[in-house]
Structure formats: structure tokens, C-alpha cells
Structure to design on (339 residues):
């Protein structure tokens, strides 16, 4: 692992790491400049304006508008430049791109469990391709952890009962540190691992090397059948007594209380664990809770299955928008879509 000439600076190996560093150096530079300026002027004035005779009376100063304007406007401009630059880097880091490869991460005391969409599992190790965007969808089985890859300059809390995401694009093949950056109990300091960045073709070989593993979507389909979801949501997720699941993910959902939500990971999870929290318009509170009956791993599998369901033409998706065809949510017949 190559290190920088600056001590303690981790290697820079993602598309954002250089930008984070540049901002960091700018902040350090501004701090250093003003520290030197203020202490220098301080020392200079102590010497220059020292009391020379015991009875000396200083010349009174009434104030200076010019000076006051200057020392207000200059710091304002500097502060705003930090804000604008920081916001720009922040937005880039916290808006995952649409075309990213999705990898699931589950944290628990004291290890990282990782699953690729092909079914490949890893513990305390994450293999990723260089030059491709990767999005991590993360949750915890117990307490708050924090998935931190210093070389990529990315870091996000991993919470129980919720999904958080972060994304990166690795630029240099190599092995990098993975840390848990949230104190999570006795062996927190041992909750470490490595990120292995491979050339894309090498990565594809690695990923297909363990063929025969069940993908999370297939495992999710089995759970969907064994837990009985199928009896209300339809064999192909087309809907029935429960809302349609096909084509649901990422769409807007109309709720019975008149509100709308986006069917993201958090919504799907809540609807499984606490179904009556956000009832879909047109459906009653008949679904039992599955809280405690599905593990975080299984939730991820069911999620993958739901994501894999595409809306097939001819099925109605009550409550989800846009309805593929059939009726609008208020029951009026829908005109043929010209899309
Ligand atoms: Cu997990 Cu600290």
C-alpha cells in the first residue's frame, strides 16, 4: 500500500478522495495563514506599541469604518467559499449514482457481513472492481456501527432498524483498510477488515469463481413463498388482497392517509415489520407483522426479490404510481398511456 509524503495521510484511491483532500488542505491552509498572520501581528504590536515612559498617554482612536468593513467582508467571503466548496463535495458524496452496483452490508458485534447481488458472501472483506461505481446498502443487527474506508474518504453510520447508503468509485487496485468508526462495545477496535480493489475483468472472474451460490433475489423468492407473502401479494407479485409488488421499488406510493412515499429500502422494511404504519391506499390493515421473524439478512433477500420484480404489462398496481395500465387510483378508467 503506497503512502503519501504527508505523515498519517491514508492513500488516495477513489474518485472523491482527491476532492476531499483538496478541501481539507484549503481549510488547513486558511487556518495556518491566519494563525501565522495573527500571532505575527500580535508579536509585532507588542514590541512596536510597548510603553516607553511611565507617564505615557496613548493617542485616542475613534474607530475606522474602512477597517471594520474589511475585517467583516474578507472573513465572510472566506467562510462562504468553505461552505460552497464543502456543499459541492458533500452533494457528490451523498447522492449515489443511479447506475451503481449494489452491495449489501450487515454490521454486527463485531464483524462485517457482505453480500454481492450474485450471492457471493464475504466477512470482513469487500472485493470491488476499480473504475465502477459501487453503492453500499447497509444495516446493523444490533448497535450502531460505522463503515469507514479511509483510502476512499467515505464513511457512514450503520444503524439497526434502518438502511443507510454510501457510494464510491475505486481508482487504484490494491488492498485498503476497513474500519468500524463508531464505538460499538468491547471488540470495536477489532471490527476491521480490508477492501480489495481489483481490475474489472479480474473482479468478474472472482465474482463468477464461486458460482452455484444462491443469489439474494432467489433466496428472497423462497422466503416470499415460505412466509406466506405469496398468498396476498400474488405469485408474481402482481397483487391481490395486498398491494402489487411488481415494479413497486423506487416508485411513488399513495397511502390511505392521503400522503405519498417513495418505495425505497426503508419503506419496504417498515411495511414488512410494521405493516400498518403506512397503509397503501385502498387496502385494509390485514397484514400481520413480521417483526422478529425475519433477520436483517433475510430482509435484504426479500428486498432483492422485490427489486427484481418488474411490472408486467396488463397487471394493475393499485396504490403504486404510475399504474402500468387499468385504473387510476381513484378508480377512473385510465386512458391508454402514450409513453
Ligand atoms: Cu462496530 Cu465499532
Amino acid at each position: 500500500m503506497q503512502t503519501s509524503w504527508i505523515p498519517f495521510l491514508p492513500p488516495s484511491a477513489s474518485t472523491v478522495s482527491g476532492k476531499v483532500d483538496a478541501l481539507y488542505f484549503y481549510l488547513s491552509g486558511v487556518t495556518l495563514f491566519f494563525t501565522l498572520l495573527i500571532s505575527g501581528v500580535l508579536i509585532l504590536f507588542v514590541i512596536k506599541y510597548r510603553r516607553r515612559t511611565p507617564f505615557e498617554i496613548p493617542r485616542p482612536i475613534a474607530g475606522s469604518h474602512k477597517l471594520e468593513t474589511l475585517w467583516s467582508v474578507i472573513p465572510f467571503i472566506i467562510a462562504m467559499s468553505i461552505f460552497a466548496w464543502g456543499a459541492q463535495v458533500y452533494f457528490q458524496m451523498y447522492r449515489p449514482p443511479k447506475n451503481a452496483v449494489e452491495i449489501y452490508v450487515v454490521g454486527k458485534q463485531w464483524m462485517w457481513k457482505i453480500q454481492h447481488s450474485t450471492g457471493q458472501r464475504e466477512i470482513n472483506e469487500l472485493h470491488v472492481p476499480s473504475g465502477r461505481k459501487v453503492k453500499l446498502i447497509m444495516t446493523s443487527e444490533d448497535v450502531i456501527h460505522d463503515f469507514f474506508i479511509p483510502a476512499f474518504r467515505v464513511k457512514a453510520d450503520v444503524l439497526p432498524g434502518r438502511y443507510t447508503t454510501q457510494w464510491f468509485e475505486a481508482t487504484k487496485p490494491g488492498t485498503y483498510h476497513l474500519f468500524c468508526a463508531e464505538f460499538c462495545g468491547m471488540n470495536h477496535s477489532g471490527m476491521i477488515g480490508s477492501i480489495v480493489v481489483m481490475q474489472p475483468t479480474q473482479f468478474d472472474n472472482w465474482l463468477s469463481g464461486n458460482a452455484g451460490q444462491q443469489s439474494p433475489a432467489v433466496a428472497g423468492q423462497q422466503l416470499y413463498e415460505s412466509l406466506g407473502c405469496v398468498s396476498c401479494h400474488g405469485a408474481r407479485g402482481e397483487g391481490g388482497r395486498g398491494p402489487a409488488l411488481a415494479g413497486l421499488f423506487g416508485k411513488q406510493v399513495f397511502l390511505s392517509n392521503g400522503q405519498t412515499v417513495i418505495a425505497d429500502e426503508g419503506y419496504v422494511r417498515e411495511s414488512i415489520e410494521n405493516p400498518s404504519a403506512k397503509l397503501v391506499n385502498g387496502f385494509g390493515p390485514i397484514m400481520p407483522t413480521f417483526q422478529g421473524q425475519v433477520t436483517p439478512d433475510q430482509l435484504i433477500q426479500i428486498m432483492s426479490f422485490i427489486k427484481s420484480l418488474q411490472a408486467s404489462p396488463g397487471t394493475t398496481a393499485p396504490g403504486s404510481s404510475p399504474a402500468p395500465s387499468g385504473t387510476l387510483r381513484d378508480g377512473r378508467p385510465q386512458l391508454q398511456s402514450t409513453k
DSSP finds seven helices and 13 strands in the chain. Helices lie at 17-48, 65-94, 200-209, 216-226, 230-233, 265-273, 296-308. The pocket of dinuclear copper ion is lined by residues 107, 110, 145, 180, 182-184, 188, 191 (CB under 6 Å).
